[in-house]
Amino acid sequence: MPTFTLPTLPDLSPATPVLWRGRVWTGVEDAPLNDGAVLTRAGRIEAVGPATQLAALEDAVTVQTDGTILPGLIDLHVHARPRYLPWFVAAGVTTVRDACNSLETVAALLNPAGLAPRVLPSGPLLDGPDAFFRQFGPGAVHEPGDGQEYSAGALIVRTPAQAERAVAFLADQGVTHLKLYEALAPDVYAAATRAAARLDLPVMTDLGMLTTRGRAAQVDARQALALGVRSIEHASGFALAATRAGFDPAGELSAALLDELAALTVQAGTALVPTLSVFEPLATDTPPDQRDLPLAGQGGPVRESLDAQWHAVHAGTRPIRSLAQADARLAAQLAVRVARLGGRVGAGTDTPAGAFTLPGGGLHAELERLVQAGLTPAQALRAATGTAADILGRADLGRVQPGAVADLLVVAGDPTTDVRATRDVRLVVQGGRPLTPAALRATLEA
User: Fold this and answer.
1) Which end of the chain has a smaller Cβ tally under 10 Å, C or N?
2) For residue 239, what are the contacts with CB-CB under 8 A and spacing of at least 6?
3) Superfamily for 73-392?
4) Could you tell me the pLDDT band of residue 2, with boundaries at 50, 70 and 90?
5) Is 429 helix (H, G, I), strand (E, B) or coil?
6) pTM surpassing 0.90?
7) What is the pLDDT of residues 12-59, one digit of tens each?
8) Where do the Amidohydrolase-related domain residues begin and end (predicted)?
9) How many CB atoms lie within 10 A of CB 412?
């Protein structure tokens, strides 16, 4: 069979056996295989190993990448909309965990009209009567059983019995995980986690940060960890836990307290998704430099709408710059401690709710921020690949291993030594289907 070198590439279907040659990083190990190869066939990875061992496959088209082949990236915290779904794939993000959307929007996300990542939805979040989502208008908040549950971004639950019914309702709608929010009462929160556990439904939770509900939430991180949540988003609830322990989280916290909270997180088996990209843009009056991120220069109505939202958020949060600095510091300090203890740190962006968090491209910025916090490049990469897949409970994602879905990202350079190398996207393979940067740009512009 013929051999091609990128960017030259024939029209290949997912069914075509292809041997992708180059530096291979599996999403699991620290170091890459420098002269490696990945065989994909029928949308799955069939073999991985040294190129010299796999080169004799006579039925495969060979593609020499001259770059690093790694798993398609996973963004663990997004708020997706159909209109910018292609942006994720164009940036090499092939799977997203949606962190809150109405069931009506979820239906559209799961049935996209064109290019889109794999979407794992939570549906509407569960919150208490004093829900933050009320500021988005009466249609954003409903109660289970009021006949308008499908349009709600948040479902209000006031009692443990209501929480159990709401969890059962969402499970019946096919959500892959449950999101619990800031204003839930402790007994209602506990009932929701118990109901989710009975249904084998993982729980992600946002317990509030200093920049949001802060210390006015009812459930702190210690309580959530004791109830077995799968992941804590934004390092939320830890500021409240510090306050209840007699510390001021707006200042410098003691190393002993941070060590204790990180150890509790690891012992509970809970993942931390710190979303550093949410806090850092709010911590300064200067918007972040995004010029070298994938799709940074993409224009059009979608980008204009996002820019208007982000600049409004950034300007409106000027009075809480110091709180954003404290949230960013706490999230980074916890993330590096959890990683050093062998716990799970996941990469999420909160795009586009966080200011200047590009759909798709923002995940590359998050990887660099994780490294700046103290994670190694391999740990940061795993936060968006192998570790992210573990958080999702999906052994078939986030890995370049036999049996996994053939979602691959080819980049120039070696991101295990310089994590910024992920930004130079040379090819995206989605379910075995290769997508060149030129084809991806054409899709976005169309």
Assistant:
1) C
2) 208, 209, 210, 214, 215, 249, 326, 327, 330
3) Metal-dependent hydrolases (3.20.20.140)
4) confident
5) strand
6) yes
7) 888 889 999 999 999 999 999 999 999 999 999 999 999 999 877 778
8) 68-432
9) 16
